[in-house]
Design a protein that fits this description.
- This protein is of the alpha/beta class.
- An 8-stranded mixed sheet has the order 3-2-1-4-5-6-7-8.
- Helix content is 56%, strand content 11%.
- The chain has 14 helices and 8 strands.
- α5 links the parallel β4 (88-91) and β5 (116-119).
- It has 2 domains: 2-183, Rossmann fold, CATH 3.40.50; 193-315, N-(1-d-carboxylethyl)-l-norvaline Dehydrogenase, domain 2 (Orthogonal Bundle).
């Protein structure tokens, strides 16, 4: 493609697929979207246009590029029709290994021009997903966080067969979309961001079930406490800065014992009982009943504002 554009096909028109497509459309890239469910595909195409257009105000997307991307957005009538000319194929179907393996096997003939095929999987390994493929060199995980068009982090996980040169190509494409790729050194279940999120959520659930705090106050405590601090610096850097000139060594000398006491007291279960799940669901739904659309809009605006502030401070 001209002007640094990349031809993209997104397979799967659920929320993650829509976010990927909106991100690429807002950059003016030609995008085709395919889903085997025609109703999901129809709804998804409208959502992609809306989410791409929303980036005009949320992240300062270029109006000309957004118009160009929306104009070139097309519906894939089949897997072959969507992927036949794509340079980058993004898989965003539900998290089912068998279905992903069948899709990636089908993509070998359906996407002959694709330099790179990525899976958005949050838990699976690329070697398992590509197990039935003959040409595994162009396959890797590129896991976004939700919503993909706003949160810049993308976790990359190659397999032992992935062409290392293509990883660098993908990083270039992602950076052109203002994404920040990080590469895992080895597979870990849940990758990095979801694994940390799972740990924090388990403790959050445990605190609620134990009666220590209500749902809405807990959400405020996390988002305005460690969540806000970690937006400015990750967990290691946060504690490294906390002790001033003494750094993390000084921090650990004074507070390691306190942290070890907290770690010993943290939740360590790995399964929610049905009655616990019911209590959690009822409480969350009650806390935010009738407000989801407004909250989602406000959430997106807050995310965009935080990212703009971080970018401004970085450039300043």
């Amino acid at each position: 493609m001209s002007g640094g554009q990349v031809s993209v096909a997104v397979v799967g028109a659920g929320d993650i697929g829509r976010g990927w497509a909106a991100l690429c459309v807002a950059a003016g890239w030609p995008v085709a979207v395919y889903d085997h469910d025609s109703n999901v595909l129809e709804e998804g195409m409208e959502a992609v246009k809306q989410r791409a257009t929303a980036l005009l105000s949320l992240s300062g997307a270029d109006a000309g590029l957004v118009d160009q991307g929306v104009a070139s957005l097309r519906t894939g009538r089949s897997l072959f029709h969507a992927c036949g000319d794509a340079e980058w194929v993004i898989e965003a179907i539900p998290e089912d290994l068998i279905h992903k393996q069948k899709l990636f096997k089908a993509l070998e003939p359906a996407a002959p021009k694709a330099r790179i095929i990525t899976s958005s999987s949050s838990t699976l390994e690329p070697s398992d997903i590509a197990a039935q493929c003959r040409n595994q060199h162009r396959i890797l995980i590129a896991h976004p966080l939700n919503p993909p068009e706003l949160i810049p982090l993308v976790e990359l996980l190659p397999s032992g067969h992935t062409d290392r040169a293509l990883i660098e190509v993908l990083k270039g494409w992602l950076r052109a979309l203002n994404r920040i790729p990080v590469t895992l050194n080895k597979p870990v279940r849940g990758h990095i961001a979801n694994r940390i999120s799972a740990a924090v959520w388990r403790e959050s659930i445990a605190l609620f079930l134990d009666g220590a705090i209500g749902i809405d106050d807990l959400d405020r405590a996390v988002s305005l406490g460690p969540g806000l601090a970690w937006a400015g610096a990750g967990p290691h850097l946060t504690y490294h800065l906390a002790a001033g000139n003494r750094g993390v060594s000084g921090f650990l000398q004074h507070l390691l014992q306190s942290f070890e006491g907290i770690w010993e007291d943290l939740a360590d279960w790995n399964k929610l009982e049905p009655e616990q799940e019911h209590k959690l669901v009822v409480a969350i739904e009650r806390a935010y009943e009738g407000q989801i659309d407004q909250i989602r809009t406000a959430r997106d605006r807050r995310l965009a504002s935080i990212l703009q502030a971080l970018d401004t401070s970085k450039r300043g």
